[in-house]
From TrEMBL:
Enzyme Commission designation: 7.1.1.9
Localization in the cell: Cell membrane; Membrane
Domain Cytochrome c: 214-313
Function of the protein: Subunits I and II form the functional core of the enzyme complex. Electrons originating in cytochrome c are transferred via heme a and Cu(A) to the binuclear center formed by heme a3 and Cu(B).
GO molecular function, one term: copper ion binding
Organism: Ancylomarina longa
Cofactor (UniProt): Cu cation
Name of the protein in question: Cytochrome c oxidase subunit 2
Family label: Belongs to the cytochrome c oxidase subunit 2 family.
Length: 314
């Protein structure tokens, strides 16, 4: 009875794995061959066996041999690497496009119908193209199971594409050190059958029930989706920015244009901090670490965030 072959996680797995195994095989072969030769020479030409050193003045044939063979091996490795890499840069014209944004310290995925998520949802057996954008520093999107990695450089257009071959959930990391909370910049790729993906894609009721489930629930969802909790803790611990525990209604000492002043953390302060994060810096924290979310969050979103912050001050 023959077992059914499990499909690869993406269409690039075979090419990358083949290239890796070829290079690894060549490395192991020479590691073993050179080590064995060295050990042989140690015993064969030790002083008791060869008391008088033999002078060698060169060998043209040997020089040619160890020039030609490594050249051939390098070209073999280049060939397998190239045939695995080249298709990664040629996305199909009908690929399903998702805008993928990296910022300190979270991922955000924007779909053509307006949906935004912090998890990448993709359909099975369909070409998916990720338009990559870094908002602040260099990030690097890495999906190990898909054998894909691409750096995101601010101001530079880049893309990544793949065809998912197996339903499941796969890790997605940032592999370029991008600051204090770099290690928390991870999420998942969820591969779904086309019919299930279509139902998820057209669903516009995803947050409607959260409003009545718990006070501030929608605001909590918004801050999680936008990566706010990577910099602001909810338990009083100090991260990149002030903790939100007990923050709303508190009087803070801030630095405004180089001068100290006291401000009450109210709705106006929160709105201004989200739109202009470097205008009033809480004493003890650094400026320039937060970008403006003016184009990412609506006034309604910010109002929901404020409702959530109020629950942390009760």
């Amino acid at each position: 009875m023959f077992s059914q072959k499990i499909p690869d996680a993406s269409n690039f797995v075979k090419g990358v794995d083949t290239s890796f195994m070829v290079i690894l095989g060549i490395i192991f072969f020479f590691l073993i061959a050179i080590t064995a030769t060295m050990i042989y020479f140690v015993f064969r030409y030790r002083k008791s066996k060869n008391p008088k050193a033999t002078q060698i003045h060169g060998s043209v044939s040997l020089e040619i041999t160890w020039t030609i063979i490594p050249t051939i091996l390098v070209m073999v490795m280049f060939y397998y690497g190239w045939i695995g890499y080249k298709p990664m840069k040629e996305a199909p014209e009908d690929a399903f496009t998702i805008k993928s944004i990296g910022r300190m310290w979270n991922w955000q995925f924007q779909y053509e119908n307006g949906k935004q998520t912090d998890t990448l949802y993709v359909p099975l057996d369909r070409a998916v193209k990720l338009d990559l954008k870094a908002l602040d520093v260099i990030h690097s999107l890495y999906i190990p199971a898909f054998r894909l990695k691409q750096d995101l450089v601010p101001g530079k257009k880049q893309m990544m594409w793949f065809i998912p071959g197996r339903v499941g959930e796969y890790d997605l990391f940032c592999t370029e050190y991008c600051g204090l909370q770099h290690s928390s910049m991870h999420t998942s790729v969820v591969v779904m059958p086309q019919d299930k993906f279509d139902k998820w894609y057209i669903d516009t009721t995803r947050v409607a029930t959260l409003i009545t489930d718990k006070p501030g629930a929608l605001g909590h969802l918004i801050v999680k989706k936008n990566g706010c909790l990577a910099c602001h803790s909810l338990d009083g611990s100090k991260l990149v920015g002030p903790s939100w525990k007990g923050l709303f209604g508190k009087t803070e000492v801030v630095i405004t244009q180089g001068k100290k002043r006291e401000l009450i953390v109210d709705s106006a302060y929160i709105h201004n901090s989200i739109h202009n994060p470097n205008s009033d810096i809480v004493k003890g924290f650094k400026r320039g670490l937060m970008l403006s979310y003016k184009d990412d969050l609506t006034d309604e979103d910010i109002d929901e965030i404020i409702k959530f912050m109020k629950t942390l001050s009760e």
